[in-house]
Each structure stands twice: as structure tokens, then as C-alpha cells.
Amino acid sequence: QAQLVESGGGFVQAGGSLRLACVASGNTFSSDAMGWFRQAPGKEREFVAAVSLTGGSKPGSSKYGDSVKGRFTISRDNAKSTVYLQMNSLKPEDTGVYYCVADPNPLILLTTPRSWGPGTRVTVSA
To answer: Which of 30, 18, 43 minimizes the C-alpha distance to 123?
Structure first.
């Protein structure tokens, strides 16, 4: 099972950008699909983005939740065992705790991933 640690959260004004990073350890990164979930205050956790083993911009290699499509971009650097989430045009409703997730099954990753990081907080002010 992967151990995941997120970084890059913080406070930003609406319209701004942040880049989250997640470093994975445990020798499973090369075989795991990776992704991000988030949880807003008082709401359930929500799928944000996922990237396949190969990553990149090839069709089908990444998926996004409807609320972030066109604004967020997920990518991975397999050499660094790191997955990134570039967040642009941030909105107050993007506020929440962002969790890095991993699972060897890319379909299960979208709903109930096996591994979770502790989370990093993002606050977007109006």
C-alpha cells in the first residue's frame, strides 16, 4: 500500500492558481493509478481528478470531475514518484481539504481508492 504526502495547499484569492504535489512511497507508484479527491466544509468527499499509469496528455489518460474540468490539470512524474494537480481560475467553492489517492485499479480509484494521504488545505477567498 502506498504512503502519500501532499503539499502545496494554502490561501489564494479567486481567480488565482495553486499547484499541489503528492509524493508517494512504498514501491507501488509505478503500478498505481493516482488521483485527487477533495472535501469541502460540511460536504462529502468529491472526486477531483485521476491519471493513469502512463500519465501525460494522451486521450483517456486522465479524468476530471465536472466541477473542475477546464481549470485543473493532473500530471505525474514517475521518476519522482510524484503526482501534481495544477489548479487555475480558482473559485471560492474550490475551498476544502485535498487528498492524494492511489489504487492499482483505475476504476476503483474513481470511487474508493485504497490509499489516502493526510490532505492539504486549500482556501479560496472571494
So the answer is: 18
Residue 3 has a pLDDT of: 93
User: What is the distance between the alpha carbons of residues 36 and 110, in angstroms, rounded to a whole number?
Assistant: 9
d(CA 57, CA 14): 27
Residue pair 70/10 in contact by the 8 Å Cβ criterion:
no
CB atoms within 10 A of CB 119: 18
| Chunked mean pLDDT (size 10), the chain, 126 residues | 93 98 87 94 95 67 94 93 97 98 92 96 97
Half-sphere CA count of 88, side-chain side, radius 13 A: 6
User: How far is the C-alpha of 75 from the C-alpha of 9, rounded, in Å?
Assistant: 17
